[in-house]
């Protein structure tokens, strides 16, 4: 009964507090301001990354939490100042009841704020046109972990500081320090440190927020919510409750009370370690800076030239995916070696390889697996585990397995990903690409037996399995939507709005641009694939005969054809590299401007070169600049002839002088007409 009256008492105090209520109102005022700023940015016109809107709560929680800590500190320290609890025989019990009642009142208030925030975000999503899906449920979970959780802990910060320091002046410094070190913006404030902490490092438990606060949502994977974040919050909560109990020991009045508290505290280390361990085991790598950096560094260190034996042919694949366990049966033909080499993602634990139902030895060198066969065989069975990594995230049962990734054994002699170095303004820079951006033309028969709901697969569904011929397979199990427009099957992320209205414009622009590209170069595929997968971040882009995966890089899908990036990407997706890397890239650079000119776009920067320009010797730079000067004054048809001739003849022997000579010849022909 007394706890009930304490709950009511603190509830009334909270509602009458100008500081607490003002801080809560400030949260929503700042949220409204952030929405206004977000929608006033032209880049957000199409809301292609509306899933990142909830990341705004990190800054808001950081701001508001300071006011909460101060209010709880003053409330509790003032009660301790007069030692009212010592006037009663069960004074220590009263003190604990006050702590728990105050925590309950604050949790209730934050629960109300959580639902209000969820309502605001949901209304905004509905307003911009985000279709109903389980995205709205995962949004609630995201806000519960990253808004409700950190704000609930503020009451414990205030109580602990009051118990330890009471009304001493140093308490203000302590509150400021706690506010900085425990806020969800910690990873951004100490970015140099957070960039080195992996998802499953013990140091990650020091951060209650995300490692990269700007990214809240990944296409098809969803919000960064998993059991790891919830277990981490539980570990923090238990640690702070234990610290509060430890800090309150000096207020006990009897030995029995002290012993009871000490016995209770013996349980807390076990519970804290248990929850912390579960947090590390279930944390995702999908959004963590350090995991991606480490993974790319591994590829930089991998030798690019590796001995591989590809004297065999693959006839068909039989792939079984149940949960995280993958079993792939590869039917071989024309096997002319006992040491066949396959490409398989090196971070997937490979449990066994069987030939004729018998285990065989194998060795791994990066993404290349060499199988040691005692005798020739017609089939090999690979058993391995699909795990969560930076390049192929696997979170909450959602996964995006793209055709350019080695998520099943492939007949390749290179790693899945290639890292390369170049110079920008004299500074060393790194970039990389998946080696199957242009998927080889050979086709195989695929049979996929997959549990759970599949959003997209480029292989047609036959009954309960997916079966058909394809160059490679893309499989998506995650949040997203699909529609059919003008014969195209379009898949897009769950946070993309109004795609049914915008799709016709997008498809028309893609078809027109692809036809223009075919006027200057031979493309990897003869026509635009009728299956298109869009994303705004995270995924790579590539074009196969039967499907296209296109990442807009945060541009609006409805307006991105006005930007240079769109035309450059369409060229890189459809036109295979030829000749030297620098020459191919400068051809892409000039072809991009020609495509923009074909569309009648007036804002074209003719002076900028490719990113590889700065790494070239001065003599080569002068030659390239001369080519740009000769190319710009040509009319559209002359530019088209130049680009077509350039690409057709481009090889290792094609020189800059020959290109310049060719442009001058074309200009001369045009002038005589």
TrEMBL record:
Which keywords does the record carry? Membrane, Transmembrane, Transmembrane helix
Say yes or no: keyword Transmembrane present: yes
| Keyword presence, Transmembrane helix | yes
Where do the TM regions start and end? Answer: 20-37, 57-76, 101-128, 148-165, 172-191, 233-249, 261-280
Q: Which domain of life is it from?
A: Bacteria
Specify the protein name: ABC transporter permease
Q: What is the lineage of its organism?
A: Bacteria, Bacillati, Bacillota, Bacilli, Bacillales
């Amino acid at each position: 009964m007394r706890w009930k009256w304490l709950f009511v008492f603190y509830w009334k105090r909270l509602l009458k507090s100008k500081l607490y209520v003002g801080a809560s109102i400030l949260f929503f005022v700042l949220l409204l301001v952030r929405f206004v700023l977000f929608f006033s940015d032209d880049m957000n016109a199409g809301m292609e990354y509306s899933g990142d809107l909830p990341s705004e709560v990190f800054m808001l929680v950081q701001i508001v939490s300071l006011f909460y800590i101060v209010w709880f500190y003053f409330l509790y320290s003032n009660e301790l100042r007069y030692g009212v609890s010592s006037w009663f025989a069960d004074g220590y019990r009263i003190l604990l009841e006050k702590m728990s009642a105050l925590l309950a009142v604050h949790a209730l208030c934050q629960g109300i704020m959580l639902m209000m925030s969820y309502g605001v975000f949901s209304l905004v999503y509905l307003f911009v046109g985000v279709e109903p899906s389980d995205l709205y449920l995962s949004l609630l979970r995201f806000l519960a972990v990253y808004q409700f959780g950190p704000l609930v802990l503020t009451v414990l910060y205030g109580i602990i500081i009051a118990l330890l320091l009471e009304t001493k002046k140093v308490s203000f410094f302590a509150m400021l320090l706690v506010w900085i070190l425990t806020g969800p913006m910690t990873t951004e404030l100490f970015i140099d440190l957070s960039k080195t902490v992996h998802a499953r490092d013990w140091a990650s438990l020091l951060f209650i927020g995300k490692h990269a606060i700007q990214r809240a949502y990944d296409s098809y994977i969803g919000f960064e919510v998993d059991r790891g974040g919830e277990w981490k919050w539980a570990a923090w909560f238990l640690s702070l409750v234990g610290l509060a109990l430890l800090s309150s020991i000096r207020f006990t009045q009897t030995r029995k009370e002290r012993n009871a508290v000490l016995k209770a505290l013996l349980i807390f280390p076990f519970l804290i370690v248990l929850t912390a361990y579960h947090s590390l085991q279930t944390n995702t790598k999908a959004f963590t800076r350090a995991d991606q950096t480490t993974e790319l560094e591994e590829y930089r260190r991998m030798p690019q030239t590796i001995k591989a034996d590809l004297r065999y042919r693959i006839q068909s694949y039989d792939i079984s995916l149940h949960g995280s366990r993958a079993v792939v049966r590869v039917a071989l033909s024309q096997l002319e070696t006992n040491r066949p080499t396959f490409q398989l993602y090196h971070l997937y634990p490979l449990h066994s390889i069987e030939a004729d139902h018998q285990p065989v030895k194998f060795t791994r060198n990066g993404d290349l697996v060499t199988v040691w066969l005692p005798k020739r065989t017609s089939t090999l069975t690979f058993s391995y585990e699909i795990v969560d990594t930076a390049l192929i995230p696997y979170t909450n049962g959602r996964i995006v397995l793209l055709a350019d990734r080695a998520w099943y054994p492939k007949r390749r002699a290179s790693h899945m990903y290639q890292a390369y170095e170049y110079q920008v303004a004299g500074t060393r820079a790194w970039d990389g690409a998946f080696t199957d951006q242009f998927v080889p033309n050979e086709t195989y028969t695929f049979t996929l037996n997959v549990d759970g709901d599949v959003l997209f697969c480029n292989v047609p569904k036959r009954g309960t399995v997916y079966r058909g011929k394809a160059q490679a397979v893309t499989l998506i199990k995650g949040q997203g939507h699909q529609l059919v427009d003008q014969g195209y099957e379009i898949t897009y992320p769950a946070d993309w709005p109004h795609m049914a209205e915008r799709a016709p414009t997008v498809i028309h622009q893609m078809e027109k641009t692809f036809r223009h590209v075919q006027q200057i170069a031979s493309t990897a595929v003869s026509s635009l694939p009728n299956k298109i997968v869009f994303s705004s971040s995270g995924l790579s882009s590539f074009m196969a005969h039967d499907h296209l995966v296109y990442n807009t890089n945060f541009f609006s899908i409805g307006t991105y054809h006005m930007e240079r990036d769109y035309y450059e990407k369409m060229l890189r997706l459809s036109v295979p590299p030829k000749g030297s890397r620098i020459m191919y890239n400068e051809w892409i650079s000039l072809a991009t401007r020609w495509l923009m000119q074909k569309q009648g776009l007036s804002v074209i920067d003719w002076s900028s070169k490719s990113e590889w320009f700065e790494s070239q010797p001065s003599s080569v730079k002068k030659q390239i600049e001369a080519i740009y000067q000769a190319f710009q004054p040509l009319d559209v048809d002359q530019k088209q002839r130049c680009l077509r001739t350039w690409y057709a003849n481009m090889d290792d022997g094609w020189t800059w002088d020959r290109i310049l000579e060719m442009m001058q010849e074309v200009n001369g022909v045009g002038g005589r007409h």
